[in-house]
Write a structure and sequence with these properties.
single chain, alpha+beta, 8 strands, 26% strand
Length: 182
């Protein structure tokens, strides 16, 4: 008898202030246990936000990816929390997020073309930020939900269709600029 695959969710709660974008949960996402078959992922996400006293400020809630994690499938969400004057006044453990993190942590673990990627948590978070930048360019409801502070800070993130796992030097990944593939 084979084991059933369970579904879990993780939420990367982010906010912005004049100094930058912040992961308000500190160093990691908020994660659920297995979601009951009669429940749905969106409810599990809102439950996580409520449990962490962040539900009232959510301006945008978007699923950015999924991945296998052992016997589970993890659905990843980014929760954009209201812009604040100073994020760390309300969320003292918040950590800054910027594209410069890639320079510090390096590229993801290299895999062959037919192998499943092995994303680190930082890769999942940075993918979520690039995904938000992509939504700014392609989704009017997402664009309307994000304040000017978000638009300004997300400009530093280039949405990438490919290249995250490209370990060959000197080759540029395919990117999107102003809705066009470059």
């Amino acid at each position: 008898m084979s084991e059933r695959t369970e579904v879990r969710v993780e939420v990367w709660p982010v906010s912005a202030d004049p100094t930058g974008i912040w992961l308000i949960s500190g160093s990691d996402a908020w994660r659920s246990s297995a979601i009951l078959q009669e429940s749905d992922p969106h409810t599990a996400v809102t439950d996580l936000l409520e449990a962490n006293k962040a539900a009232s400020g959510v301006k945008l809630l978007h699923s950015t990816s999924w991945r296998a994690d052992g016997q589970a499938v993890v659905l990843t969400y980014v929760a954009v929390i209201d812009c604040l004057e100073y994020v760390r006044d309300q969320w003292p453990d918040a950590k800054p997020i910027s594209p410069a993190l890639t320079d510090v942590v390096g590229k993801p673990i290299e895999v062959e073309a037919t192998e499943a990627p092995i994303p680190r948590y930082i890769d999942v978070l940075l993918h979520g930020m690039r995904h938000l930048q992509f939504l700014l360019q392609t989704d009017s409801s997402a664009r309307d939900a994000l304040c000017d502070t978000w638009r300004r800070h997300l400009a530093a993130f280039r949405p990438a269709l490919a290249g995250m796992y490209d370990h060959k030097h000197g080759e540029e990944p395919i990117t999107i600029a102003d809705g066009q593939i470059a």
